[in-house]
Amino acid sequence: MLTVSLLHAHLSRCRSARHLLQIHAQFLASGLLADAFAASRLLLFTTSDAARRLVPRPLDHSLRLLRLVRSPNAFCCNTVLKAALRQGLPHLCLPLYASMPALPDAYTYPILAAACAARGDAGEGRQLHSHAVRHGFGDDVYLRNALTHMYSACGCVADARRVFDEGPVWDAVSWNTILAAYVRAGDIEQAIRVFARMPERSSAAVSSMVALFGRCGMVDEAKRAFDEAEHRDAFTWTAMISCFERNGHFMEALGVFSDMRGEGWPVDEAVMVSVVAACTRSEVLRNGEVCHGMVFRAGLGSRLNVQNALIHMYSSCLDVAAARRLFDSGESLDHFSWNSMIAGYLKNGRVEDAKTLFSVMPDKDNVSWSTMISGCVQNNQSSEALTVFDSMKAHGIRPDEVTLVSVISACTNLSALAQGKSVHEYIREYQYNVTIVLGTSLIDMYMKCGCLDAALEVFDTVEVKGTPCWNAVIVGLAINGLVTKSLDMFSEMEASGTAVPNEITFTGVLSACRHAGLVEEGRQFFKLMQNKYRVVPNIRHYGCMVDLLGRAGYVKEAEDLIQSMPMSPDVPAWGALLGACWKHGDSEVGERVGRKLVELDPHHDGFQTMLSNIYASEGMWQCVKDLRGSMKQHVAKAAGYSVVQPSHSS
């Protein structure tokens, strides 16, 4: 006769589906169906991981058993509900609850709340909440925590907060759950308030806040929370490392990792991915190699995320051979693995290797195509980029905005107006939203191809015109000689209130003034950029002003401006001033500038010739003779050759 103790013994030795069915049959024959406790033992086993390995659909087996039990209790029903949730079938939980042969208890509703959270169904969650209150469980802290999490998971943070506030008592889980709700929603202000009120800050709470501060760029606040934490675990350390890495503090990330190791914490997959990423972005290969050794010793080398991080690290640090060895040794590669390897080849200028790998990639995603196209553009193979784009469309892959911007850049580089128009037509046909980035690339392409009307038409279609769009129009009009229109657009930009001029804007404006010889306007813009917009002039701004003043004959003012530059003047700026001296016959300044240029670039025979002419105009023949002697010493004339290669007879 089967007893509860014998049932337990049989279940502990059950190793096959046949054995389980035999136990089931003995259970039915023994009359234990009337014993809710015995039934719960068998149900508990049939919903376990061990049973899942024995029978193909263990939940069906458990449901049939539950229907046979004469008087099942809430524990039996909860066991089946929990099994449905654990096996990834949360949609079955509420129907099972509706047909429960026993009254729910305090543990039933938290399971159902977790099912609603997994489904993200706030409507079902609210119905469940009402049922729980009706059955007298509304003040149960365990249930209130589950409901808080459920509302948060469904995106209803206000409902989650209301459940929290209505609770008569709160435990540590209550505080952690409402904090997690605000962290998940990215509500930094409310998260800070809750964190400040917490009677005890667990390591989970500190980890959540450090991670949230990191996502919001609040590195100092994250470090303060980390330093003040009474309790830290591996997740807290990982969150701090990730915060530093995410916000560009790579050496600090590695420093925290060193401290973590010094305190004896073991490394796991998550922390090593962040640490390798910090090594990647700091471009210190030696640190990455040390981390690679640590990964190997920790037995994490076969983890896909770690492999991908290492492939990306070696590719970014120009050791593409090491990256390829890791790639070839990978047992299971994903899109990131392939894309990282292709990007690594492209970054290292090995376009043919990238094309070869790309051609055998089994399942190319949008990132794969975009990586290949942008890589070709960056390696001055714009024609190849357009070929890859045509292939992408032929495969039925719809490009994203990043890909389209790269393709338009390729058209711009090739001055391929027809193909640029074709891409623009594609954008219209598939009704892409012309964002600031996409619109700016189209405007730039049309401007550089001389299609001003088309560029302005695109400009008008961009709904939110940011600074880059205005810059593309202002600079484009200037390089096409429409100086007045360019300066008018600058005035419109100032009046728009939607964009603030930056250093690129003033490069365009000053270039326009230089081309048109608008000296007074140039002076005003040069002051405006500094006094009103707080833009610090860079070497290009100074170069424009020197050229503008020099061309107009203000040679001494141009020289004074060069001398006042906070950075070392470059050769083009000195060259522009020398040209102005020659044009306007200012031999005194020209001689000083010419000598400076000869020192900076002794092999530039054009500058030496111009200085020689200045000497000659002043009758300084000995200086002419000395300079020409110096030219013979420094300037090695290249042997002449024909640009048309002679044909070779076979």
Automatic annotation (TrEMBL):
Xref: InterPro entries: E_motif, PPR_At4g14850-like_plant, PPR_rpt, TPR-like_helical_dom_sf
UniProt name for this protein: Pentatricopeptide repeat-containing protein
Transit peptide keyword on record: yes
Residues spanning the signal sequence: none
PANTHER family reported for this sequence: PENTATRICOPEPTIDE REPEAT-CONTAINING PROTEIN, PENTATRICOPEPTIDE REPEAT-CONTAINING PROTEIN ELI1, CHLOROPLASTIC-LIKE ISOFORM X2
Alphabetical list of Pfam families matching this protein: E_motif, PPR, PPR_2
Keyword Repeat recorded: yes
UniProt entry keywords in alphabetical sequence: Repeat, Transit peptide
Repeat region (PPR), residues: 171-205, 233-267, 334-364, 365-399
